[in-house]
Amino acid sequence: MAYWLFKSETATWSWDQQVAKGPNGEEWDGVRNYQARNFMRQMAVGDLGFFYHSQKDREVVGIVEVIAEAHPDSTTDDERWDCVDIKAVKPLPQPVHLDAIKAEPKLADMVLVKNSRLSVQPVTPEEWARICKMGGL
Predict the structure, then answer these.
(1) Of 101, 121, 30, 21, which Cα lies nearest the Cα of 59?
(2) CA atoms within a 13 Å half-sphere pointing along the CA-CB vector of 105
(3) How far apart, in whole angstroms, are the C-alpha atoms of residue 117 and residue 137?
(4) All domains of the chain, ordered by start, with CATH?
């Protein structure tokens, strides 16, 4: 199993909207960055990810699961762009703010800290465990 982080602006697609999709989940569509697309192409069904509210909130708020591997993004006819489907698994009891992540020395090499603009990114098992603990899991 691999771990990931999915970023979304709250006004565009929020955790509450993701939860409302239920067990059928939703495409993680609209990604137009080659590196983020390539990360999605590496994902497998059952992989887990953090759901991160970017922009104003800047915090990890929940855990999602990949429920469909990379396939053509339905929001474009451009065959270069793929997406995965994800479903909400559970919220973090305590959202983990970016400031707390940056203040944690063990997370200094996390992609979120070094390349905060990337909308889909890998998370190491150690980073996953640390953020889960910080979030009350």
Answers:
(1) 101
(2) 0
(3) 26
(4) 3-134 (3.10.590.10)
